[in-house]
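Thread: Modeling a multi-component assembly for a lab meeting

Hi all, long-time lurker, first post. My supervisor asked me to bring a structural picture of a complex we are working on to next week's group meeting, and I have zero experience with this. I have the sequence lines for every component (224 residues in total). Could someone generate the structure of the whole assembly? Inputs are pasted exactly as I received them:
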Amino acid sequence: KAGVTQTPRYLIKTRGQQVTLSCSPISGHRSVSWYQQTPGQGLQFLFEYFSETQRNKGNFPGRFSGRQFSNSRSEMNVSTLELGDSALYLCASSIDRPYEQYFGPGTRLTVT
Amino acid sequence: GDSVTQMEGPVTLSEEAFLTINCTYTATGYPSLFWYVQYPGEGLQLLLKATKADDKGSNKGFEATYRKETTSFHLEKGSVQVSDSAVYFCALRTTGYSTLTFGKGTMLLVSP
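Re: Modeling a multi-component assembly
Sure thing. I ran the full set together rather than chain by chain. Output:
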């Protein structure tokens, strides 16, 4: 089975722009979660989607949003980028609770 | 809220040395506990898990025991290899949720 894939792997954006990141879960997995990883804050939960519905949300501003499509693929969007949004964004998929989450390689976003 | 505390790194060891990385947690209820490993430039890989008190998770020579009385889940390996050099994350998942709460991570450096 193919693993979780994320595109693009690397991205450079300018402050004020917006960005969309994509995640394709493992086949058969219906839950997709997003995490932000930074050196200062570590790994922080952004949101979780299941069957196209947001099921849980972390403590991030409204500039961070996401969605899930009927094939379980998910996208996250960050609008009005700030320097502090520079991070590795990780996507994880699972069949559902309480099964394990499998992580993708991440998208490295740099905001200049 | 839930939290995970790990020993700060880096932990520097010679090949074949004994490894311990401490992890303690604070959570309501009875969480599941995990160790994830992150190699340079990659996402997170599940190393081992334990879902109830006194469970021992093990994989690739690594072990950790769920200690409810001390709220701990320390990672151990009897003989480390250079290839074990990576960042190790302790995490918990509250019952009924998918969200993982991570520690800050501990970098392990193993020299020949």
